[in-house]
Amino acid sequence: MGVSAQAITGDAAFVSLHYLSLLIVDDERWIRESCKEVAEHMGFKVHTAENAIMATRILETESIDVALLDIRLPGPDGLELLLKIKKQQPETEVIMMTAHATVDSVLAAMKTGAYDYLRKPFNLEELKILLQRVTDTLRFSLENRITREHLKSNPGYAGIVGRSPEMEKLYRMIAKVASSRHPVLIQGENGTGKEMVARAIHFTGEFCDRPFIPVDCGSMAPAFLESELFGYIKGAFSGAVRSKEGLLSIVNGGTIFLDEIGEMPMDLQAKLLRALYEKEIRPCGGLKPIPINVRIIAATSRDMDIAVQQGTFRRELLMKLSVVSPRIPPLRERKDDIRLLVDHLLDRISRATAVRRTISHDAMKILLAYDWPGNVRELENCLERSMALSSSPVLNAADLPAQVQSAVVQANTPAKPPKNKIISLIELEKNAIINALNQLDGDKLMTARMLGIGKTTLYRKLKEYGITDYWGPPLNGE
Q1: What is the pLDDT of residue 461?
Q2: β pairing state of 21-25 and 45-49
Q3: What are the beta bridge partners of residue 256?
Q4: Which residues of 179-218 are buried (b: 16+ CB within 10 A; e: fewer)?
């Protein structure tokens, strides 16, 4: 059992409530109907049953993502049904309901694989919060599964493409840190693949079955970023109509990837630093600390030492995060990998579009000569655009974006020598006289002879050009 493929859109895994199925099993009709109304309003496809036998029939024909079971049912009870569900559809998340909860029954349910439980009578708002939590869990689980499959099916190390010495060094560092819990700070220019390296660190380690949650610190408003990471309690601020669990606590043994952490506000940096040291957080508006078990992998395209000097990033947080700090080389520093990347990207794009393309020798020469300021992301966009606009099975140089072609042409065009200033004949003559006078210590007679002119002509030129600073031996007639 798993989330339907319909729930996946694009390259990333995305679970939509409109594709999740929920099975409600309770012998009281009003409870079934109340829970069904809430779940359908959230977007679930809902099935209901009044006993375990009816539920079993539904399980034989339907793929169930979430089950809501009463422990006390007529006939086989909820615990027996829980066992059957976990045997038939092991990835189904099960929430138990009971009005007579005992420690033993709750422990038995949790040991059998129940996700959580609700004590009757419960507020429907509690049900909504729990259903939202289980949806987040399913989404993270699906994303992890798809990422693991993607990493296995791609060339290179853990899905990263490249065989240059610079990349081999990066692979060795990834392998060393994958199974540790130390924070990691990945450095690299935009488009180099920092999130892919973060995923490789997570998914090649022993905690690969735990959630990996990316957070873009640069695209979120500070208040929203804080509430996403730390959560908030009901009434913490205007609009907080119900409590929300923060990602730092939801991840529970997994990894939070903080992309562009250099954009995080200073006050939030202090809160994150405290959380890393104390291994607990306080939701916005809350007083009670919540223990956390999370690994932080951060990434930045900025020079963090300069950010510290400028007072925009806390030195203590930088020291805490950069226990291990791999650097991803820009594409211009590993041009030997461009052919491999082009083959890989063309293959991936061809499979996605069902149109097989190759690339000409001339086009490849241009790709190898270009500096790729946007790195691998720019190369991928370049190939996608070229394939979209070309109808030929072979991508030629003319199919490449104009800016790529023109940049290469400009780089290969020899620079023209700078144009010398045009000097007039009068200027040349004046300079020749001054240079001769300098070399002959102002001797005007010798100067006239060296220049091949008469002494009268030299005298006239000196007067004409205003040259009056030379007092060597006089010319006859002066």
Answers
A1: 84
A2: parallel
A3: 213, 296
A4: eeeebbbbbbbebbbbbbbbbbbbbbbebbebbbbbbebe
Q: Give the C-alpha separation, 426 to 421, whole Å.
A: 14
* In the predicted structure, residue 103 carries a pLDDT above the cut 70: no
Closest of 247, 160, 264 to residue 212, by C-alpha = 247
Cα 420 to Cα 151: distance, rounded to the nearest angstrom:
60
Q: Which residues of 434-468 are buried (b: 16+ CB within 10 A; e: fewer)?
A: bebbeebeebbebbbeebeeebeebbebbeeeeee
Residue partners of 158: CB distance under 8 A and separation at least 6 = 151, 171, 174, 199, 200, 203, 204
Residue with tokens 């409530």: 17
What one-letter code names the amino acid at 317?
Answer: L
Give the strand pairing for 290-291 and 280-281: antiparallel
Please report which helix (H) or strand (E) contains residue 467, including its range.
none
Span 292-299, average pLDDT = 96
Q: What is the token pair recorded at 155?
A: 């060339």
Confidence of residue 11 (pLDDT cuts 50, 70, 90): very low
What are the structural domains of the chain? 5-139 (3.40.50.2300), 154-321 (3.40.50.300), 331-412 (1.10.8.60), 425-465 (1.10.10.60)
Residue 173 CB partners (closer than 8 Å, separation 6+)? 324, 326
